[in-house]
Design brief:
Length: about 325
Amino acid sequence: MSGGGFVRRVVTVQLVPCVLFVASFWVVLKAGAFTGPSHWERAVPGTPAATAGTLTALMAGTALLALLLQPFQVRAVRALEGYWYRWSTTAGLAGVLVEVQRRRWEMLREQAERGARGPIGREMRAEAGRRLSARPPADVLLPTALGNALRSGELSAGERYGLSTLSSWPRIYMQISDRMVHALSSTRDALDTAVNLCWSFLAVALTWGIALYDEPRSWWLCGAALVLASVAYKGAVTAAQAYSGLMHTVYDLHRFELLSALHHPLPQDTVAEKEIFTEVTARFTGRGRSPMRYHHTVDGSHTYDADRSAHAENMDDEPA
């Protein structure tokens, strides 16, 4: 990741969502909304010195909050994905939402298999098939659309060739081209930005709801924050679908480079490909038992990108 890309990620993924929450909290705090009727004029600095002080405080608060939340980026995404079963209070809700997702999946399957009449019918059938392909199988659905969009890539990108996506992804990532790295990084940044904006607007809605509970005329502000949170969530789902598509492309184009990097001979046909990738997956997960042949080049060199280490901070959550 280049220096410009790193700065852009810090600004868009971390600072912008944090400054939205910090600024909204500052406004209601200065307006006195937590202790009585709000006086919005108090939130506007009256002098240049007060303006400078306000901006300094907002910048400091934003930077501190961004630093505190950065290690929890993976959890922020997974919470919206629907990994709620570890908490008893949300496990029941997860079960209900999974059933909702399953019914939607069945509805799309019926639409995709239904006989189509006329251009509109064929278009609706094609759209249902496209939406169904962006979801995982019915027996592994997650409670949320975001979770299912990411799981679709996690469970099928490498599996089509005999590779486990979750265990092989950090390894195959090191073999991909610079253009693919840029595409993945940009899409992942869009996903993380949308997720953080969603959480930020939810926090704003909660904060303003607490501060303005006794001012019904201002409740529309909370509603506006919730609408913006839903828009950000929809953006996260769209970015997750694009990211899953890129994961499939990575395995389509670079799976043999993974074999070369592991010094294994390339397969001659699809049957041999499935066998060798199945054994490679078993070795990745510590279950490999069959002997494997090695093929060493004369110079022992393999293609790699020196910038891969810059993306190591995201290796724990890719795929999320």
